[in-house]
Write a structure and sequence with these properties.
CATH topology of the domain at 575-704: Ferric Hydroxamate Uptake Protein, Chain A, domain 1
CATH superfamily of the domain at 575-704: TonB-dependent receptor, plug domain
Largest sheet: 7 strands, antiparallel
Structural class: mainly beta
Protein name: TonB-dependent receptor plug domain-containing protein
Helix content: 10-25%
């Protein structure tokens, strides 16, 4: 009966409390003050892209833990992209990045994505290596959790310094009399293991030397007289395990239960009868499981957990392999480069691409990336040094070394005692459908609010565009609607429909549902405080770039002053370009799009709806009329469905169809894979803009007079990466080019009809060695990480 309850509660957790994990791809490894940090966040749940969360939070804090910037972005296609602009002066050599979803705030913050960002300090001397005294600590981890008298068990250990960097150690294990029991030495990155059979009442101590030969003494965990020891090894499509009990102990230690679970799903359960034996074992088939961390837990008959172990299952199925081909290569000054990304299969993929100055960016091939993060580090606690190293090949030694990581890092997503009692997590921040408009009326008896009351809200953006919403009455004093997307701050003018004077009788509060940030993050304790000799090359490069920027800045400033006094004849902008500047913003502005100017199209008013207007005007875009008069049409482009936007807010086809063509000023149609729209516009994007009626600010519109208003905070405005085109005569091309990120494309989207993506970019004035990094996933949850050097 107890075991059945355990099964049912695990199903409840899996169905109602899915766990998410985040990986963030940054454009490069090291930044200078004043630069932009570009990033792309990928959100997974278990082994699959997460379809759960809609809001992503990114925070940047300094060494003291003070949060200096916070951004919120909408999630689509299990990903989002954003940026942080660094100040001109950054104190210290690191900033700390933290990323999480709304849903993740309900659980252990240890599973947030966290990363220390290297910052080049102008005061650093690249010719002097900083020597920081290392303080070594040694920790011991009995396999399964406990040392048990009379039962042989494996003990793993891990030695590292105050910065989380591994330290190799060696020493001996002594019993309480000082007798040497055995020797031990590090196998890999300060980690190792040894078998031991402790005696009852014994206490064990490690006498060991660090890398400088300094001797230390560290006690091992206490020896228990009653308990269970579990051992496990992950092999070819199976996990072998053994469970042994102490000679002492009551009947609850003679009938045990072992379970194995992955991503909150129970994959194995067995009863272990130790009535007549002290040890038993078994085999867990893992060939049909996805690669990842598998947790084994042994329970007594009363469901008290007595042993736990995590192992890594590696079925080598987690990768897909796009190819990057250089169609044109030039590392000369401002040379043009063209590359083609070829995805061999027909599944949809969501990728991000960065091209940087390899000399300035440093070389950290084994640091955490999308593969190691989503398979290992996103599941375990603590610092794992160079986690991608364990996925750099298929040798048995790598699997053995990865098992040391499993033995020395904790995993505690479940609190078994609470689960057995039927307790579920308290959800303080339910996931929502993008932004909400939650309205509460305070100071009025809720029973005096009519059931059919509603709230009309006119949202006015900074670009003077407006949109009207009817907010329904939920219950009591609350009104609300979800699924909104807007950026920056907006003014909300509102009026109650039934009782127009309600707002003057009460206080009306608005809330978009965004989770408030913490006032401070944890101070940086693991950020490395000194540069090593290996760091000198890329530090020297960054110092040169910073010095060059300081040299040319006065020259550029003088050019600006000179240009301000010169009357310059420029190309006259087309009406379509003027409309684009007037209406489009953020990712929707500019770009390679089909643009239709309906203000100056005298025939536009003859069309019954905007879809009829667009039919036949865009190559490849298929618009199929709906059934019967007024039927909603269906759209497809290269096998995908275009995203639809009205004044840059996502809508459905029915809403666009009901928008009179006479109200439309401009239509922009972006090709599939353009990167425009949530998820990057994998099926293309159609953006409709309604007329504004001149440049008069909406905030002064007479129709707003007498209406109450509130200020609402929306998503952070995304910044567009600027990539110069040196084949064009552009005034921006006249200055010196010292960019270290040469190209950043957060959305590289492919599908069965669009498997090849061409990318063009230009070199700067100084780079002679490029680093290309491509990361992402496909719709099956398979991952890719490709890094190439071009010189």
């Amino acid at each position: 009966m107890h075991a059945q309850k355990l099964d049912s509660m695990m199903n409840v957790y899996a169905d109602h409390y899915p766990q998410e994990k985040v990986y963030v791809h940054f454009d490069k490894n090291l930044y200078n003050s004043g630069e932009t940090i570009w990033f792309k966040a990928y959100i997974f749940s278990g082994a699959d892209p997460s379809l759960y969360s809609k809001n992503f939070y990114a925070e940047l804090s300094d060494a003291s833990g003070a949060i200096i910037q916070r951004k919120v972005y909408p999630i689509s296609e299990s990903s989002t992209a954003g940026n942080f602009d660094l100040p001109k002066e950054v104190k210290g050599r690191h900033l700390h990045f933290r990323g999480y979803t709304t849903w993740m705030t309900n659980f252990d913050t240890a599973f947030y994505f966290e990363k220390d960002i290297r910052i080049y300090d102008k005061k650093d001397s690249v010719l002097t290596v900083t020597i920081v005294p290392r303080q070594t600590r040694l920790q011991f981890f009995p396999e399964g959790g406990d040392l048990v008298a009379g039962v042989e068990g494996m003990v793993a250990f891990k030695a590292d310094d105050q910065f989380g960097l591994p330290v190799n150690v060696k020493g001996t294990i002594q019993d309480k009399t000082g007798k040497e029991v055995m020797n031990f030495t590090s196998e890999h990155d300060g980690m190792g293991r040894f078998p031991v059979t402790p005696d009852k009442g014994d206490s064990l101590t490690a006498v060991w030397q660090d890398e400088k030969g300094i001797e230390h003494r560290t006690p091992l965990p206490a020896v228990k007289s009653i308990g269970v020891v579990m051992r496990a090894i992950s092999g070819n499509q199976k996990v072998l395990f053994s469970v042994a009990r102490s000679a002492e102990g009551g009947p609850e230690y003679k009938h045990l239960i072992i379970i194995a679970h992955m991503h909150q799903h129970l994959v194995y359960k067995a009863k272990i009868n130790l009535e007549d034996n002290f040890m038993s074992g078994g085999t867990i088939p893992t060939g049909q499981l996805p690669s990842g961390v598998l947790q084994l837990t042994v329970f007594r008959s009363d469901l008290m957990p007595v042993a736990e172990r995590v192992v890594f299952v590696n079925n080598h199925e987690y990768l897909f392999k796009p190819e990057i081909g250089m169609q044109m290569k030039s590392v000369t000054r401002r040379g043009k480069n063209s590359l083609m990304i070829d995805v061999p299969d027909t599944l949809r993929s969501n990728l991000s691409l960065s091209v940087t100055d390899a000399t300035a960016d440093g070389d950290f091939p084994d640091e955490d990336n999308i593969v190691s993060r989503l398979l290992v580090t996103g599941e375990l606690r603590g610092i794992i040094h160079d986690p991608y190293y364990y996925f750099s090949g298929t040798a048995d030694s790598l699997m053995s070394q990865l098992d040391l990581v499993m033995l020395t890092h904790g995993w505690r997503r479940f609190k078994w005692e609470s689960l057995v009692r039927g307790q579920v997590p308290v959800i303080k921040n339910p996931e929502q459908d993008y932004l909400s408009m939650r309205v509460e009326v305070l100071g009025v008896d809720p029973y005096k609010i009519a059931k059919d009351e509603s709230l009309n809200v006119i949202m006015s953006r900074k670009d003077s565009s407006t949109q009207m919403y009817s907010i329904p009455h939920i219950s009591g004093s609350k009104f609300g609607v979800t699924g909104l997307v807007f950026y920056d701050t907006v003014k909300a003018f509102y009026m109650f429909n039934v009782n127009h004077s309600l707002s003057s009788q009460a206080a009306v509060t608005f809330n978009t549902g965004l989770v408030p940030g913490m006032r401070a993050a944890k101070p940086l304790t693991n950020a490395f405080e000194g540069w090593t000799a290996e760091d000198s090359a890329y530090l020297r490069r960054n110092r040169y770039i910073v010095q060059e920027e300081a040299r040319v800045q006065p020259i550029e400033d003088q050019k600006v002053k000179t240009l301000a006094t010169v009357t310059k004849t420029a190309r006259v902008k087309t009406d379509a370009e003027k409309l684009d500047e007037k209406y489009a913003s953020g990712m929707f502005s500019g770009g390679d799009a089909y643009t239709f100017d309906l203000v100056n199209d005298n025939l536009a008013s003859a069309y019954p709806d905007i879809f009829t207007y667009l039919q036949g005007k865009v190559p490849g875009l298929q618009i199929t009329p709906g059934n019967g008069p007024g039927g909603t049409p269906s759209l497809s482009w290269r096998g995908g469905r275009p995203g639809l936007y009205l004044n840059e807010m996502q809508v459905d086809a029915q809403q666009l169809q009901s928008t009179p063509v006479t109200d439309v000023a401009m239509v922009k149609v972006f090709r599939p894979g353009s990167g425009v729209g949530f998820g990057g516009g994998s099926g293309g994007t159609i953006a409709i803009y309604t007329k504004k009626g001149g440049d008069e600010k909406r905030g002064n519109d007479p129709s707003f007079k007498g209406l109450d208003r509130a200020i609402l905070l929306g998503y952070s405005m995304p910044k567009e990466f600027y990539s110069p085109n040196y084949l064009e005569n552009d005034p921006r091309n006249e200055g010196e080019d010292l960019r270290t990120t040469l190209y950043w494309k957060p959305y590289v989207l492919t599908d069965k009809d669009n498997r090849h993506v061409n990318v063009d970019f230009f070199n700067n004035d100084i780079t002679r060695k490029l680093r290309i990094v491509l990361e992402g996933f496909n719709e099956d949850g398979k991952l890719t990480h490709i890094e190439q050097i071009v010189q």
